Automatic annotation (TrEMBL):
Molecular function (Gene Ontology), one example: alpha-galactosidase activity
InterPro entries registered for this protein in UniProt: Aldolase_TIM, Alpga-gal_N_sf, Alpha-glycosidase_related, GH, Glyco_hydro_36, Glyco_hydro_36_N
Domain of life: Bacteria
The entry's keywords: Glycosidase, Hydrolase
EC numbers for this chain: 3.2.1.22
Protein's name according to its UniProt entry: alpha-galactosidase
Gene3D superfamilies from the UniProt entry: Aldolase class I, alpha-galactosidase from lactobacil brevis
Keyword set includes RNA-binding: no
Catalytic activity annotation: Hydrolysis of terminal, non-reducing alpha-D-galactose residues in alpha-D-galactosides, including galactose oligosaccharides, galactomannans and galactolipids
PANTHER family according to UniProt: ALPHA-GALACTOSIDASE C-RELATED, GLYCOSIDASE FAMILY 31
Domain Glycosyl hydrolase family 36 N-terminal: start-end pairs: 86-171
Amino acid sequence: MPADVVEILRWGHSGLAAVLEVHPDRPVALRELTAGPVSVRARVSQPVVEVLVPGEGRARASQRLSETAVGSRLRYAGSEQSSADGWHELRVRMRDEVSGLAAELTLRSPDGVPAVQASVRVTNRGEEPVLLLAVTSFAAGFLGLPAADLDVLYGDSDWLGENRWTSRPLADHVPDLGLTGHGQHGKSVFALTSTGTWSSGRHVPMGGLSERRTGRTWLWQIEHNGAWRWEAGDRMDGAYVALSGPTDPDHQWSELLAPGESFVTVPVSVAVSDDGVEGAAAALTAHRRALLRPHPDRPALPVVFNDYMNTLMGDPTTDKLLPLIDAAAAAGAEVFCVDAGWYDDGGDWWDSVGEWLPSRSRFPRGLEEVLARIAGHGMTAGLWLEPEVIGVRSPMADKLPAEAFLQRGGVRLAEHGRHHLDLRHPAAVAHLDQVVDRLVEELGVGYFKLDYNVNPGAGTDVGATSVGAGLLAHNRAHLAWLEGVLDRHPHLVLENCGSGAMRMDYAMLSRLQLQSTSDQQDFLRYPPIAVAAPLSMLPEQAANWAYPQPGMTDEEIAFTMCTGIMGRLYLSGNLHRMTPEQLALVRDGVRLHQSLRPDLLRATPCWPLGLPGWDDPWLALGLRTEHGTHLGIWRRPGAGETTVLRLPHLAGRDLRAQAAYPAPQEGWSAAWNPRTAELTVTATVPAPTARILHLRPY
């Protein structure tokens, strides 16, 4: 290619357009990624791939994953486009002649969906080994727009306080430093990272940028069940984003590539929209559905009753479970999961788990009696399982070889009384396969709640260049193990739980069927978690606890039921002690949820009061479908009697707000204004109180 020729590489489909600029003297850059018409007016210089190696580091000193020496030298070496099975794919090849490294960027997008999945393969084409310290999965300038014009969206997460989203001006983190006048790209950066194997233990593995004036938005997710990093910063030609898995500065990750060897990054996905965060969330929702592994659970979405939350709390026995099973069936549950404790004979099971044999003291006539009672009601039997850990007092701690555990310096890692299996080792995999196969084939278990309550830290130094590389290989082996379980037992339903939602990512959720959204036991604090959940996951995967109790008022029962109804209903509570009237109120909520399931599979979320704040007195979640909009509305103590919900997608339409749950809707009223697209809601009954409404045409 002549030195003065710029080649424009166009790729996409009806829902997505991408434009890459190819130049013989510069790295490949993504100029456009949009759901609308391509303008090709942006001028961006951020390389599409960044590679950090120790011998050269960055082209200019900074702590960013932008302008690395190798990334700045990568040059276009060809591309291919293809389409198959409803997916479009672009592969762009690049080469750095100095280091001998070749990089191939792969972009994949489902037909008609304005979102793309990206990953990078780096191959050592040279004659000497090369140590990788970081490789981006996706890097791009944000449409040539300055940081001063943009808002950055990110989600904090914690045990009991998941999905706490914040939108702030990017300039609050990356100030305008007059870069053009200095002739250099900036050094400041806003970066979020994870730690160890809790991919959402501190932050949701997602983020976004929005142009404040027009609403143009990119929303991304990092699809990895381990360590990750994303960053946004400013360059002379505008803001950029860089998304990656583990890195050396953040996670003690490095990978030594011998000549001819390759490394593939973790996948990430980016959704685009001209309609703000809600538009990008709708695009990401469609993209997530395209990523899912097919499973019989998906069209059924059975209601799960779990005995743990505010009920048995890890202390199940035959006498406690049998009446609870009967009541759960009467309420309409379709799965009954026996949670933690079913394997415990000693009463102090935390650091002794690992064999997963049913207790004889808790179930004198065998766990089989309990599971038969579940099956006798036509429900699927489920069990809690924490497969990746072995308690320090467990017999399995001595039966398995030391190499079957994550280690540092020849010592098995221990955290909170547990060792952590290394699923790269065949003995660890064989043990877990034996446990799962035995419980499924001998006891008839059809559902597992897979919990995960420890974080082993940076990784393992056994059989790896670095502890971070050891952890990444284990993460990938864990995903392979899950796939093997589902291949052997295609009807088995697997719930993703990690101390609530500490491992809430689409490496896991593209494979598993539902996600516990929290361990939060306070029904007044749960609504902001549930309302925000559909930004982090599919609404039909968001298993929100509803735990009504006989000591609650009818309004309190309805309040907690509404929290579960608007996602994947996850029921608990001492239903067997309720009055017939209370149980009928629960059963009405279950029936409403069951009637919503076909819509739930197609719905896109909206937030008529904005993304929820942790202490917001009023909260609202909308689920948009082709038939109308379902609204969940919660009024917490301290809230005024009236709030105004904004629903711009319904502007100009004559609608009625139909009461759905509970019935009758005493003390609540709603007035729709089609001109302003506002629904004024008034609740005169004392808080806490909540309702489900349907907005439909007359």
